[in-house]
Write a structure and sequence with these properties.
The complex is a heterodimer.
Chain A lengths: L2 E2 H11 L4 E5 L5 H7 L6 E4 L3 H15 L3 E5 L3 H4 L2 H9 L4 E7 L15 H5 L5 E5 L5 H13 L6 E6 H5 L1 E2 L20 H13 L3 E5 L1 H5 L3 H11 L3 E3 L14 E4 L6 H9 L2 E5 L5 H4 L10 E6 L13 E4 L2 H9 L8 H16 L13 H12 L4 E4 L3 H9 L8 E2 L10 H11 L5 E6 H6 L3 H8 L4 E6 L4 H10 L14 H7 L4 E4 L5 H10 L4 E6 L30
Parallel strand pairs in A: 2-3, 2-4, 4-5, 5-7, 6-7, 9-10, 9-12, 10-11, 12-13, 13-14, 15-16, 15-17, 17-18, 18-20, 19-20
Antiparallel strand pairs in A: 1-8
Chain B lengths: L1 E9 L4 H11 L4 E8 L5 E9 L2 H13 L3 E6 L5 E12 L5 H10 L3 E6 L2 E8 L1 H11 L4 E6 L3 E4 L18
Antiparallel strand pairs in B: 1-3, 1-4, 2-3, 5-7, 5-8, 5-9, 6-7
The chains are: A alpha/beta, B alpha+beta.
């Protein structure tokens, strides 16, 4: 029996386990949307802007561990996806993007709504496909999903010519993946495992780095057991938060530019770094010349291009974190590292003294208080999605997640506008979990249109806007490094509660610290979307901060206030 | 330093673009790039010559290897390798100078492949140095036009310059 390319597309997606898709139709993909009506098991979430679809699919992928799917038409529909594709690429998120394309005989003719989407997406996808015949559909979908989720995951784009959607084919499924050139490493060789084990056995001041790769490979349990057995403290990257429960005594919290001071000090003093599934981003390392100067480095990483990219690896273990840790485990005896852990404890006490939460209150709203109240109310167990900026760093600091897969944020791309759509996607993936979108007033307005999508789907997400009427992080940089010359950072915002109301979304405005608790509980009790507009201190800074390019231990710390206050 | 890389790639549309794009991203100029089918028509082989620091070319080698359509890539710089370039050179040679030009060509084992009243076309195969030497000697006569294929390279002896052959480890599903 023959089927159209469009029918093969949806059937292939169903075969890959797809249940929810995000997107917006248009001229060159209408045939596919027509065929979609025959597959009611696919829930299609209609967005207001394709960037929202991309970020929803990404949020869905990160919260579910499955491949997210976003669908758009050709031309502007496709180019609107671009920022979202880049976010998925930078953060290794498995998303398959499907875009309509002009009929294959019109490729390259500047036809209406034609854009060279495989060309545009080439550097920001793991791979992409151009489908010009219905015979290619089943194979392309199979390969796209396989590439997206295997090895180091990432986005894959399928650009689907209209004539291939309409024409019929006998190729209805693909049973095999034919990828001659694609073989991600899995196991590290025994010789290198032994070298790594030797370094670990002899280290006096080791630190484990847990990155996103720990969660992608499902190695959370292995990391915890390994750390506990060897008494090696665990520092986490922004995307690695949750790899070890934050209340675990061996957790150092987050590393890097806005990481905890004791974490960064431990890294700088360490004699061995065991880096698991992370890539030494510049926001993690600071000045490379003085980065962990006494530490040997073991780099466990599935992507060969990350090895020796930023730091020299004394031992590179190319493979899946989970597999490598299993292979390493039997070679390493239990250890104590008492002296080292005591030293870290001392640093930690100093960090806690400077914590904003122990400072005398000035009656104004501070983001850390709000985030901490949400943390307390939800026992640290909600699924938190952030936007990008100051509130993102404060959320990372003050909502230390207890569980893995509970903190979703745009790390590598640092893309404002991510929070709201990613939270919508995450809720579709985890309908049983409480999902909070903690966003800034700047980023929220970039994808605010997706409030309509949230309302249309009546999706239960709690939106908390940290409204300081500034592009806060840029303002902070201008304050610290540009003599407080504020350039293009002040925002005259609309009334977010009225905007919520216009969508039929319940909301609360919060102006004082003693109103936080009731507002959080109101949001928690609300079914469907809800919005809280927190009017916070306008010129608060995120501490500690490693100035860009400075040594990791050269942090700007929050000043300790004297007793008189 | 000049680096020579060889890459086995799938013979599909867009693959050359994927390869070239990696060099563009890092602002590398490709000195030469030669592509052609291998003994297996589904697979093409590229020889890429670039100027760059070893750490940069190592990075690009890793990035190339990561491309889904690239079956294998190897930097063969400094290894025992046969590297050849082919050039066609149209040189001004009025009848009385023809013999002189032909004699030069013969020294370089170049062949005269076309004769016109006022010019000759020479074909020469060899290393880049050899071709450049001939061109320098021909300049006084007047080089009217030249085309070069860019280097192609193969490891000497029994060694095979690529590690992964399709079929051996090609299916990971």
């Amino acid at each position: 029996m023959k089927k159209t390319g469009a029918e093969v597309l949806w059937e292939s997606l169903i075969r890959e386990g797809v249940e929810v898709m995000f997107g917006l139709p248009g001229g060159q993909i209408i045939p596919a949307f027509d065929a979609m009506l025959n597959y009611p098991q696919l829930h299609f979430v209609l967005v207001r802007h394709e960037q929202g679809a991309a970020m929803m699919a990404d949020g869905y992928a990160r919260a579910s561990g499955k491949v997210g799917v976003a669908v758009a038409t050709s031309g502007p529909g496709a180019t609107n996806l671009v920022t979202g594709i880049d976010v998925a690429m930078m953060d290794s998120s498995p998303v398959v993007f499907i875009t309509g394309q002009v009929p294959s005989n019109l490729l390259g003719t500047d036809a209406f709504q034609e854009v060279d989407m495989t060309g545009i997406s080439l550097p920001i996808t793991k791979h992409n496909f151009l489908i010009t015949s219905p015979d290619q559909v089943a194979h392309a979908v199979r390969e796209a999903f396989y590439i997206a989720r295997s090895g180091r995951p990432g986005p894959v784009l399928i650009d689907f010519c209209k004539d291939a959607q309409v024409a019929k084919t006998e190729v209805l499924e693909s049973s095999d993946v034919h990828l001659f050139g694609y073989h991600p490493p899995t196991h590290a060789p025994a010789v290198q495992l032994e070298q790594a084990a030797e370094l670990i056995r002899t280290a006096k001041q080791p630190v484990i780095f847990a990155g996103h790769g720990v969660m992608i490979s499902g190695a959370v349990e292995e990391v915890r057991k390994f750390a506990e057995r060897t008494n090696i403290p665990v520092a986490m990257t922004l995307l690695g938060l949750g790899a070890l429960s934050s209340s675990h005594p061996l957790s150092l919290g987050m590393m890097g530019m806005h990481g905890t001071a004791h974490c960064n000090l431990a890294i700088q003093q360490s004699d061995l770094i065991i880096a698991l599934g992370m890539r030494f981003d510049d926001r993690v390392t600071g000045n490379l010349k003085n980065y962990a100067p006494n530490a040997r480095k073991i780099h466990v990483e599935i992507d060969p291009t990350e090895i020796n990219k930023i730091i020299h690896a004394d031992v590179a273990l190319m493979g899946d974190v989970k597999t490598v840790l299993k292979d390493l485990d039997s070679r390493i005896p239990n250890a104590k590292h008492e002296e080292w852990l005591n030293q870290i404890k001392e640093w930690k006490q100093d960090s806690q003294q400077r914590d904003i939460l122990v400072q005398p209150t000035n009656g104004k709203l501070h983001v850390p208080q709000i985030v901490n109240d949400i943390w307390k109310a939800t026992k640290g167990e909600a699924l938190i999605v952030t936007d990008v900026g100051q509130h993102q760093m404060w959320t990372a600091q003050y909502y230390p997640p207890e569980n893995p897969y509970s903190f979703i944020t745009s790390g590598g791309a640092g893309s404002m506008g991510f929070g709201l759509p990613a939270a919508i996607g995450a809720k579709f993936a985890q309908p049983g979990r409480e999902v909070w979108a903690i966003v800034g007033d700047g980023g929220f307005q970039m994808t605010q249109a997706e409030l309509s999508t949230a309302a249309q789907e009546n999706i239960e997400i709690k939106i908390a806007i940290m409204n300081n009427h500034f592009l806060g992080m840029v303002r902070q940089w201008q304050e610290f490094f540009f003599e407080k010359r504020y350039s293009a950072v002040q925002l005259k915002n609309p009334d977010f509660c009225m905007i919520a109301e216009a969508h039929g979304i319940p909301s609360r405005r919060v102006l004082k610290p003693d109103e936080i608790h009731a507002a959080v509980e109101f949001a928690r009790a609300t079914r469907g979307p809800v919005l809280l507009d927190f009017h916070v201190e306008q010129e608060e800074a995120v501490y500690p901060m490693v100035p860009p390019g400075a040594d990791l231990h050269a942090m700007i710390r929050r000043p300790i206030q004297d007793e008189k206050g | 330093m000049q680096h020579t890389m060889i890459a086995l790639v799938e013979n599909k549309p867009g693959v050359l673009n994927r390869v070239a794009s990696l060099f563009r991203r890092r602002n590398f100029n490709i000195e030469s790039l030669a592509v052609g089918q291998t003994e297996n028509p589904e697979i093409s082989r590229m020889t890429i010559v670039v100027e760059g620091r070893p750490e940069d070319t190592a990075r690009i080698e890793a990035n190339l290897y990561n491309l889904v359509n690239i079956i294998d890539v190897q930097d063969v710089t400094g290894q025992p390798v046969i590297a050849r370039d082919l050039a066609l050179i149209k040189v001004k040679a009025e009848p009385k100078l023809r013999a002189e030009v032909s004699a030069l060509a013969e020294i370089f084992r170049a062949r005269v492949v076309d004769v016109a009243p006022e010019s000759l076309i020479l074909e020469i195969t060899g290393t880049e140095d050899k071709i450049e030497s001939l061109v320098e000697l021909l300049r006084p006569f007047g080089v009217l036009e030249m085309v070069r294929t860019g280097q192609v390279a193969m490891l000497r002896g029994g060694a095979i310059g690529v590690r992964h052959m399709p079929g051996a480890n090609g299916r990971d599903a």
